[in-house]
Amino acid sequence: MLRGRKIGLRARIESDAAVLHAELYEDVLTRSRSDDRAWRPISPDSPEAPYRLAEPSDRLAVFSVVELVDGEPLAGEAVLWGIDPHNRSAHVGMSLRPAFRGRGLGGDVLRTMCEYAFVVRGLHRVGVETLSDNGAMIAVAGGLGFVREGALRQAAWVNGEFLDVVAFGMLVEEWEQLAEHAAEPAAARPGTVAAPAGPTDDDIVDEAGRESFPASDPPAF
Question: pTM value?
Answer without folding.
Answer: 0.84
